[in-house]
Structure formats: structure tokens, C-alpha cells
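Example record

The entry below shows one chain as it appears in the dataset: sequence first, then C-alpha cells.
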Amino acid sequence: MKLSRLYQPRNPAFWLMMVFNLLSTVLAWIARNYALTTFAALLIAGMAVGNAVLGIRLMLVLMREEPPVAGSARSRDESDSAEF
């Protein structure tokens, strides 16, 4: 598990992680700064915690998976065409 694997802008999971973490931050800010009813505050806080958990889960998935090697597919295709 490497922290350097976290930044993968070409991976859709990276952008989902960013959206979940941003959305949980916005929801926490709304719950903190607005006078909401108890039900609305609990609903917003629950959604913020859920988004944070999903963002953390995606972060762990990104840190565990091996990033694709950029030249591996091209070099394999070139070696296949060289045989013919």
C-alpha cells in the first residue's frame, strides 16, 4: 500500500473519491452553519459520514491496486505486429 498510488487522474475511482470527499465536506459545513430541524441535521450528518466512508474506501482501493504501466500495452502490440 503506497500513498503515491493515490493520485491517478485517469482512473475514474480517483474522481469519485474526490467528489465523495468534497460532498461530505460541503454537507458537514451545511449541518454546522445552518439552523436545521433535528431530522434534517441527522439526515445531512448521516449523508456526510456515508460520503466520507465511501471516499476513504475508494482511497484504500486506489492505494492497494497497481497502476497500469503506460508502455506495456503498446510494446506488446508492437511485438505482436513484428512477428507477422
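Notes for this example: The longest helix spans residues 38-64. The mean pLDDT is 81.
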